[in-house]
Design a protein that fits this description.
The complex is a heterodimer of chains A (159) and B (389). Chain A has two domains: 11-62, no CATH class; 64-153, OB fold (Dihydrolipoamide Acetyltransferase, E2P), CATH 2.40.50. Helices cover 10% and strands 31% of the residues of chain A. Chain A contains three helices and eight strands. Chain A has a five-stranded antiparallel β-sheet. Chain A is globular and about 50 Å long. Chain B has a domain at 145-217 and 290-380: 3-Layer(aba) Sandwich (Peroxisomal Thiolase, Chain A, domain 1). Chain B has helices at residues 30-45, 65-72, 90-102, 135-140, 149-164, 168-182, 197-202, 230-233, 269-279, 300-307, 316-319, 338-342, 348-359; strands at residues 12-19, 54-58, 79-83, 108-116, 205-208, 210-211, 220-229, 241-249, 290-292, 371-375, 382-388. Chain B has a nine-stranded mixed β-sheet with strand order 3-2-4-7-1-8-11-10-9. A two-stranded antiparallel sheet of chain B has the order 5-6. In chain B, strand 2 (54-58), helix 2 and strand 3 form a beta-alpha-beta unit. In chain B, helix 1 (30-45) crosses helix 2 (65-72). The longest helix of chain B is centred in the N-terminal third of the chain and has 16 residues, at 30-45. The two termini of chain B are 30 Å apart. The relative contact order of chain B is 0.19. The chains are: A mainly beta (159), B alpha/beta (389). At the A-B interface, strand 4 and strand 6 of A face helix 4, helix 5 and strand 5 of B. Strand 4 of chain A pairs antiparallel with strand 5 (205-208) of chain B.
Amino acid sequence: MTTDWLLPELDELTRPFWDACKRGQLQLQRCRTSGRLLHPPRWQSPWDPGNGEYGKLDWVTVCGRGTIWTKAVPHPPLLPPFSQFSPYNVIIVALEEDPRIRMIGNLVARPQAPINSVAPTEIEIGSAVRVVFEKISDDFHFPRWVLDTRENAEDSSHV
Amino acid sequence: MFKEQNTIKDKAAIVGIGETQFAKQLPASETELACKAISAALKDAGVSPSEVDGLASYTMESTSDFELAKNLGFGDITFFGQIGHGGGGGPATLGMLAMAIATGQCQVGVAWRSRKRGNPESRVWANKAASAELVTAANWSRPWGVLRPVDEVSLITQRYMHETGCTRQHLANVAVSIRKMANNNPRAMMYDKPLTTEDYMAARWISEPLCLYDNCLESDGALAVVLVSAERARDCNSPPVYLHAFGQGISQQSHSMVNFYSENPLQGPSWTCARQLFRYSDIQAQDIDVAQFYDAFTPLIPFSLEAYGFCGHGEGAAFTEDGGLDINGKLPCNTSGGGLSEAYVHGFNLITEGVRQLRGQSCNQVREAETCLVTASTSVPTSAVILRR
């Protein structure tokens, strides 16, 4: 198992996201006033320009489905552990609830499969995907994405 | 109400430029290189170091203002500032000095960039510890393998290709046009290395859809410019090149380099910058004779062509066809070879080349060039200037 992933900071702003991932949920911030979703997280909502209760945000669970907005395939020179998976894919997913919300991730052939398990030429912008989670450490279960097909529909999204 | 006569239009002029050699590896330190470039710029201007009282640089600049003042013998410094965001900063160093000169905060300003990046270990992205400038990237993109600036740009480029019909041939057009400029410029690191479309198509991937020749060089070198008031410029050695207009831009909800989260990532900071640049400018896009676009990656050229109004959104790729960027093309671009083929010094060589064009001294001289646009990166909080003779 790969152990030297580049881990994000775990702080007041990011912890709710990662705690939800451990529960197998994709959670994002939502502006209490406008109802708009936000990503990456903010300290206050830019969509609520101050009506006294300045920019309050709540963490809400989203459905975890979306479409591929773009992709890239990094080749060397890279850093470990990515060097060993190269060429792997990176995708950006536009979420179903609000396609303006885009999340960076990787497309994998099935839950727990490595980030180079899908041939880069088979990745198409516009394809439907859904989130799955891979346990990286006790603190971090990384969201990854699988094609939202009938074969993948039966899989447990979380191990 | 804002009065147009209060703008900085034509109130300051570049009267000196200086640069060191560019190479993969230079033995001198960044401070020594900066001293050489600034000395050359002051000599070019015919201005004594003791007259220098204003300094502007990048926050990523590692040579310090007071160290340079001590070594070069500057006088009392009354204005000094730095601008953030790496490759977004070049033209803003000129803008800051022009504002300081126009408002009497200084008389003789020096802007510079000294950088040793030829050594692969000096690459910012290779540092696993998240610096303050990498925090969003570190938290929301690096964990999934978006490690380098090229990965960030390849993601936006793939989307651009999907939406506009831009192909690898268009990116090759950019790389080949700019390489041809370098092949006429003995200072360019790629002076004796021709590049064909076939070479481009055969090159190794760095981050698909971007290959080796979509990426800028990694260089050691330093450059400097001297700015003074329009009145003072008349007494200098070199013909003045006036700073006609200046813009900066951070677009709404944009992120630096990982600008995937705003409403329209394909219309980022440069679009905001362009609106401010042209707001008080007598010179509009159709009046620009030659452009020096920030070119850390080839797709930044079509992005910039669109942002600064040389074509409509989605038309930047087609603009590169039929030699559109060549010396006799629709808009001659990056006439020294730019960051792709002369040297990558955070875009500062685009400024000195803009000045050479307006002095009639370029290796790829655009006939009777009177106006030049110089831009910073489209991918970060950015800046641009319009220079005129």
